[in-house]
Design a protein that fits this description.
Helices cover 7% and strands 44% of the residues. With 260 residues, it is mainly β. The chain folds into 3 domains: 32 residues, no CATH class; 116 residues, no CATH class; 72 residues, no CATH class. The strands form 5 sheets. It has a 7-stranded antiparallel beta sheet, with helices on one face. Strand 8 and strand 9 form a beta hairpin. The termini are far apart. The relative contact order is 0.17.
């Protein structure tokens, strides 16, 4: 309802979570300490589509490598904010890019071999919000989210409080970890940044839970796809020595894995 007084609630299958912030305290309750990947992605795409690392001085003090340019896509003038290509594990990946209409409306982002398109915008509380988000890896559609936008019902003060104590930083919907998981899995290079498939091998997207276990891996792209499912399945329930963290609290995160 205002910047420092909000509530969000998610139900996805058997998973249910409520997070509130009010009176200077954030609280969180959920049916499981694992946030499913679709919930993790959609909450992030709706609430923070650019990722704080791309614009926040708190996450990244300098953005000297960022390039601002005008481009034409389908004959339409767009503003592009892009980052240079980067090397990871001996492979060079395409840098992230963000495309805006000249009025500032976000149309598309591209990073880590995945693109997100935003469309069908409507006004809500003096802001514009998308009613359609599509996630793709090349020509393959990974996720389509059709969003219902409606005015909030009558809200009472009780909606901004939950029983219990203040929540740990790592227990939140779409928590943004400030340190990645530690440890190595044989044959896999992990990356939290960059994009694009390697010339040889496969690329997959995985969740790493609060205990460091690899979960819900999804194929993005690869040079040899016939045995990709078998290869990826090897790393299900593989465990990092130490999970990702935020302010010293265990944190669930999403990583790109490269098998060559």
């Amino acid at each position: 309802m205002e910047p420092h007084r909000w509530r969000r609630e998610v139900t996805f299958g058997s998973y249910h979570a409520v997070e509130v912030f009010g009176n200077g305290v954030r609280k969180f309750q959920s049916t499981d300490d694992y946030e499913p990947s679709r919930v993790f992605q959609l909450v992030g795409l709706l609430g923070n589509p650019l990722d704080a690392r791309e614009y926040s001085k708190e996450y990244l003090p300098k953005h000297d490598d960022r390039t601002l340019s005008m481009v034409k896509v389908g004959g339409v003038d767009l503003v592009r904010v892009s980052y240079p290509d980067e090397a990871n594990g001996g492979v060079t990946f395409k840098g992230a890019a963000f495309y805006f209409e000249v009025n500032g409306r976000l149309l598309m982002t591209s990073a880590q071999g995945i693109s997100y398109e935003y469309s069908s915008y409507v006004a809500l509380a003096s802001k514009i919000v998308p009613r359609l988000i599509e996630e793709s890896a090349g020509s393959r559609k990974l996720l389509t989210a059709v969003i219902l936008v409606e005015a909030a019902p009558k809200i009472t003060d009780a909606a901004f409080d939950l029983p219990g104590e203040r929540s740990e930083p790592g227990m939140a919907l779409n928590a943004r970890c400030d340190r990645g998981p530690e440890g190595e899995l044989p044959g896999v290079t992990w990356s939290g940044q960059g994009g694009g498939p390697p010339v040889n091998g496969i690329v997959f997207l995985s969740m790493v839970d609060h205990h460091g276990y690899v979960r819900e891996s999804k194929l993005i792209a690869g040079a040899f796809l016939d045995n990709a499912r078998e290869l990826i399945s090897i790393y299900h329930k593989a465990k990092f020595k130490r999970p990702a963290e935020i302010d010293g609290s265990p944190c669930e995160t999403m990583l790109i894995g490269h098998i060559r």
